[in-house]
Amino acid sequence: MDLRKLRYFLTVADEKNLGRAAALLHISQPPLTRQIHQLEDELGVQLFNRTPKGMELTEAGYLLAKESRNIFALVQQASEKTQRASQGRLGRLDVAVFGSGVLDTIPRLLLKFKSDYPEVKVVLHTMEKEEQIQALRQHRISLGFNRMLKPLPDITSELVNRESLLLAVNANSPLATQPVIKFKELANHPMVLFASSGRPNFVDKVMSLCYSAGFTPEITQEVGDVVTGVALVASGFGVCLVSKSGSTLSLPGVVYREIEDMPKDATIDLSCVYRTGDNSKLLASFLSCLQEFKELNADTNTTTP
Amino acid sequence: MDLRKLRYFLTVADEKNLGRAAALLHISQPPLTRQIHQLEDELGVQLFNRTPKGMELTEAGYLLAKESRNIFALVQQASEKTQRASQGRLGRLDVAVFGSGVLDTIPRLLLKFKSDYPEVKVVLHTMEKEEQIQALRQHRISLGFNRMLKPLPDITSELVNRESLLLAVNANSPLATQPVIKFKELANHPMVLFASSGRPNFVDKVMSLCYSAGFTPEITQEVGDVVTGVALVASGFGVCLVSKSGSTLSLPGVVYREIEDMPKDATIDLSCVYRTGDNSKLLASFLSCLQEFKELNADTNTTTP
DNA sequence: GACAGGTCATTCAAAAAAGGTATCAACCGA
DNA sequence: TCGGTTGATACCTTTTTTGAATGACCTGTC
């Protein structure tokens, strides 16, 4: 039972006449007769009652006609879906996220992607840096978002955006009312730091900034993610340096302040990573969307130089 | 894109190797190579990445593989369903019912049919006698249940069962307390009669019974169906002759009584009707079920001679 | 009641499609 | 570098499908 026979069958079922059906199918009548007979023999079922007026569906034939239409709809769909998939417009993209990127940039990027490629299902996984690399290598994910990545030959990384750092301060702290905060003042305040596994990480970055400024920070607590860090600030554990994205987190008792003389290199990059040479069309779609996203954000940034 | 190509494609997708797939398909490798290429050309989509290790599905190929499995499942199902339909075990049977038959006999019969042929969907339509004949001729229904049918050449009728008549009496009537009721006594009591359209009908039957017994009944009201008739008995309109099936209707204030000297021919037949020469397998299934049903009921009847 | 005009079924040769054998080119690991 | 693997290609054979002509049957008409 192949699709040709079914198509022939459906045409005869519609026309109720072998001659007309054959004409519609651009074949002559005898082969059509034979194909119908073959289909009947194969199923062991009489599909038509032959009358002097033409071909009349039996109950079984009627059912098969109905089922056949479903089959053709599915085949048509399969063909179209396959074509869309080949263009990177349909499918599933497994993406790993972690850290403060999920608070602002990544949601906006994903929103744009969903609107540009509505038929691509994005599945998010929360994974730390090292885990992401491993998952990429095992093809469990196609894309990861993270910060502070060291270069690797089999993993390509692309900058998503670069953010300056802000200081999360407890509202009761004198720093909260102070008009201007200087970087060196942090030496006098206990500090909360968050850092995911894997070097280099955010702790390394902050420590080196402080050393450059000539002091050693007093670390009261190290935590695993921004949210916990800011929560500790709210509880009075101390101050905490966070990315601009991180400052979208608003907790009672926490305010964010700029530091006046923040070093120019005191920025933190959000990057995305993927397998070097991955020629997945879905990934290509995503990266092209990311490119547009960056250009869009560059435009809005230039308005505030 | 026919099913052979899809089957070949799926095998290659599973094996990830043309040689092994060809062996499984009992063909040699070169034609398989060609079929896969043809499928790719037809869709305009690369389905595999050829590597020195074998054939690796692309994203589009992966999707097509998934869809193909659905297609094969549907094809398999269509084939099986068609075969069951050809044996009269699957499909839809439109059945018309009317009158007191629906109160007892027909539900029991349908229950048996549903249990014998669970995949046949029985659709019930309420139609009077004449309407049923018309609907049969227009192929809107395949079967009708009715009483008192006159023979027709294009409609075959088959007896379902034969029931005696009972008298529905208002509980306050003297007849209700009387130990024995004689048929002639009906002359002294007003009577409710129900009759569907089309001759001969139940009214004709009762009238002729009364004339034979030597009296003319006093008809207080004619109604269209049993339920209404018995309801009027409950309201004190008079007595009403009903079939035994009809007496399963219990309304407050109504009791059913036998008539001692009921004439032997005072019975009423429930028949089913269908198009003469209808060779529908579903109908055949139903009629064979009906036959068994009648034998079953005959058995239970013989226990009370 | 013969006949014209429809229906589907059958026959046989031609065309098209699928399959098979032998061979090639590329890659990989020993 | 050299077997052993992979998929691709060329050429021929077999099978399947098709087409033109024709047959068999029914129906409504004259």
What is the share of helical residues of chain A? 40-55%
The tally of structural domains of chain A comes to: 3
Low-confidence stretches of chain A: none
Q: What's the architecture of the largest domain in chain A in CATH terms?
A: 3-Layer(aba) Sandwich
Q: Look at the helices and sheets of chain A and give the structural class.
A: alpha/beta
Q: If helices are DSSP runs of H or I spanning 4 or more residues, what is the number of helices of chain A?
A: 10
- CATH homologous superfamily of the largest domain in chain A - what is it? Periplasmic binding protein-like II
Helix and strand element order of chain A: HHHEEHEHEHEEHEHEHEEEH
Shape of chain A: rod-shaped
Q: Which class of the largest domain in chain A in CATH terms? A: Alpha Beta
Largest interface: A-B, 36 and 36 residues
Oligomer description: homodimer
Total strand count of chain A, please?
Answer: 11
Rg from Cα of chain A: 32 Å
Instruction: Write the CATH fold name of the largest domain in chain A.
Output: D-Maltodextrin-Binding Protein, domain 2
Let me know the largest β-sheet of chain A: 7 strands, mixed
What features would you describe in this structure?
Two copies of one chain form a homodimer. Chain A is of the alpha/beta class and 305 residues long. Chain A folds into three domains: 3-86, Winged helix-like DNA-binding domain superfamily/Winged helix DNA-binding domain (Arc Repressor Mutant, subunit A); 91-160 and 269-302, D-Maltodextrin-Binding Protein, domain 2 (3-Layer(aba) Sandwich); 163-267, D-Maltodextrin-Binding Protein, domain 2, CATH 3.40.190.10. Chain A has ten helices and eleven strands. The first copy, chain A, has helices at residues 3-15, 18-25, 29-43, 59-86, 105-116, 129-137, 174-177, 202-213, 226-234, 281-302; strands spanning 48-51, 54-57, 91-97, 120-126, 143-147, 155-170, 190-194, 218-223, 240-243, 254-257, 267-275. In chain A, the strands form three sheets. In chain A, strands 3, 4, 5, 6, 9, 10 and 11 form a seven-stranded mixed beta sheet that branches. In chain A, strands 1-2 form a two-stranded antiparallel ribbon. In chain A, strands 7-8 form a two-stranded parallel sheet. The first copy, chain A, is rod-shaped and about 105 Å long. The N and C termini of chain A lie far apart (69 Å). The mean pLDDT of chain A is 89. Chain B binds a DNA duplex (30 and 30 nucleotides) through α3.
